[in-house]
Specification:
It contains 16 helices and 21 strands. By secondary structure, the protein is of the alpha+beta class. Strand 15 and strand 16 form a beta hairpin.
Length: 557
């Protein structure tokens, strides 16, 4: 854990508290109405999107208008109430709090380094290149010439027939039989998967050169998709990783296999010419089960009946981060990711507001998945390639089956940020990192702060084994011996359980409310100061105590 993690967690606590306080301070009881209106507008928007997808003609047009008008109406209502700026500021602070909290949790965990080992350069490498992938990247970047200059044998596929699976697999098998000690592909994920299966079968390392359009496999390996020629460095200065491979029957997939609506849409001959029009034309019947397969999916002891879309992935995708959706934090977890969506009504579409807890959304991990239908065949998208396969289909994962050779110097995989957990953020905010001794994170042992007593008879301890007994002045620190009558020292043992600090915080909260004297701004100011002091580590508490004491004297004079 870095020293920035606790401070970022403290920022998250302060920003989250300010977001709530501003909403309550300026909207009062109307804040409940504001939240209800916002949630209702979002639900109506999602319902409008659903109706847009499942209808055609005038109904689709009206539903699209509703989906756009609902959020606009919510903003107009906020503006008419004079609270639009309050909502925007509160939302901005809340977004800052969540982003800071997730960043702090990611820093606490630290980046995960994949297991890699240095290896000697190959002696007889063999690369297969697809000249049509990525709009002709292979020829445009001169990849065959650069690879041959590094000693590799290069086979360029026939531009008129580049997608023949038997031809690609046959080339790879023949190369291994002739003594190739490394296989590689410059092309899209579909071609990568075909040759990766041959490499895994014969135990030879595999090189990925991202010359396709998207190249999600290269992205999750941490390769530079913008400069495919940089991946050729793996031939001379490379390291080796062990990653998993997914299988659907006997066919390998490096990314995912999709079933349901998307797989059926991409099967249409018109999809390549006009993707949007074809999708909108086919979706109504697919989403309402008028056409398309009635899927039954069994994964890890769970059965999903008639989902509209199913995605089985080689290692799970990030689902807690919309910005990171489509990326996998690791490729060696040894499990498949399963994501299934079942939405049969506008109410269920609105229920997607609950995120991972939505009843129509299933996200799980397992080692094997079975997909069945009433029909003898089912359309499937395997690494973006449209196929039609016989049912039932069995998907499983082969842990560590593929040896991947990557450049030693590469961009790497950015660390994923975990889901927001306010309890962990609060605990992290109370953590001090020792950097001088290198002994790692620890909790502060003792933290004292001075507050006014609510007409308590004498000064008594409120924490520790002597709760309720009078304080011994000799036990106080020199800077605390000037405490006048009517004050006590609240000791929060941060090294103990967090709930003790919570109880201490509740007690001091009652005192702070008394000190505010009923003034609204005084209450908010003292409450925020209490929060900041709780978030500060001991080295910063002395200055905060001074500020607090001065503010308290002014507010009570």
């Amino acid at each position: 854990m870095t020293s920035a993690a606790p401070w970022t967690a403290r920022l998250a606590l302060v920003a989250g508290a300010m977001a709530v306080v501003i909403l309550l301070l300026f909207a009062g009881a109307r804040s409940v109405v504001l939240v209800a209106v916002g949630a209702g507008g979002t639900a109506v928007t999602l319902a409008g999107v659903w109706w847009t997808l499942v209808h055609r003609g005038p109904v689709r047009a009206l539903a699209a208008v509703l989906a756009v008008a609902a959020p606009v109406a919510v903003l107009v209502l906020y503006a008419l109430a004079g609270l639009l700026w309050v909502v925007l500021v509160s939302l901005a602070l809340w977004a800052l709090a969540v982003a800071s909290g997730r960043f702090a949790l990611a820093e606490e965990t630290g980046p995960r380094r994949p297991g890699e080992r240095r290896v000697a350069p190959p002696e007889r490498s063999y690369l297969i290149m697809n000249p049509r992938s990525g709009g002709g990247k292979v020829d445009r970047l001169g990849l065959p010439e650069k690879a041959e200059a590094l000693g590799a044998r290069v086979a360029v596929l026939d531009p008129d027939h580049p997608d023949q699976a038997d031809g690609v697999v046959g080339l790879a098998r023949r190369a291994v039989e002739e003594g190739a000690d490394l296989l590689g592909v410059a092309g899209g994920d579909g071609t990568q998967a075909l040759v990766a299966g041959v490499a895994a079968e014969h135990g030879v390392p595999f090189v990925v050169i991202p010359a396709g359009t998207r190249n999600h496999f290269a992205l999750d390996l941490g390769l530079d998709r913008d400069d495919p020629s940089a991946c050729l460095d793996a031939l001379t200065d490379g390291v080796e990783l062990r990653v998993d491979l997914g299988f659907i029957g006997e066919r390998v997939f490096v990314n995912n296999a999709s079933f349901g609506a998307y797989a059926a849409v991409v099967q249409s001959p018109a999809y390549r010419d006009d993707k949007v029009r074809t999708t909108l034309q086919l979706l109504p019947d697919l989403l309402t089960h008028e056409t398309g397969p009635d899927l039954v999916v069994r994964a890890g002891g769970r059965t999903m009946d008639r989902p509209q879309a199913v995605l089985v992935s080689n290692n799970p995708y990030r689902t807690g981060d919309p910005a990171g959706l489509g990326r996998r934090p690791r490729l060696d977890s040894g499990v498949l990711g399963v994501l299934a969506v079942t939405v049969d009504s506008a109410a269920q579409a609105a229920g997607l507001l609950r995120g991972r807890n939505a009843p129509g959304l299933v996200s799980t991990t397992t080692e094997d998945v079975t997909v069945d239908t009433r029909e003898p065949t089912v359309p499937v998208g395997v690494d973006g390639e449209p196929l039609t396969l016989r049912t039932p289909l069995h998907c499983h994962i082969a842990p560590g089956a593929l040896r991947v050779r990557v450049p030693r110097h590469r961009p790497g995989v950015p660390a994923g940020r975990p889901a927001m957990d306010w309890h962990r953020v609060r605990r992290l905010a109370l953590t001090t990192v020792r950097t001088a001794t290198g002994r790692g994170p620890h909790r502060s042992r003792l933290w004292r702060m001075r507050v006014r007593v609510l007409r308590l008879p004498g000064r008594r301890e409120t924490e520790g084994p002597g709760v309720g007994r009078p304080l011994d002045p000799a036990a106080l620190r020199p800077e605390e011996r000037d405490a006048t009558a009517g004050h006590l020292v609240v000791e929060a043992q941060l090294g103990d359980a967090v709930h003790r600090l919570h109880h201490a915080g509740a007690a001091t909260g009652r005192v702070v409310r008394h000190l505010a004297g009923g003034g609204r701004w005084g209450l908010v100011g003292l409450w925020l100061m209490e929060l900041v002091v709780h978030a500060m580590r001991p080295s910063g508490c002395r200055g905060m105590r001074t500020v607090w004491a001065g503010w308290r004297r002014r507010s009570t004079s």
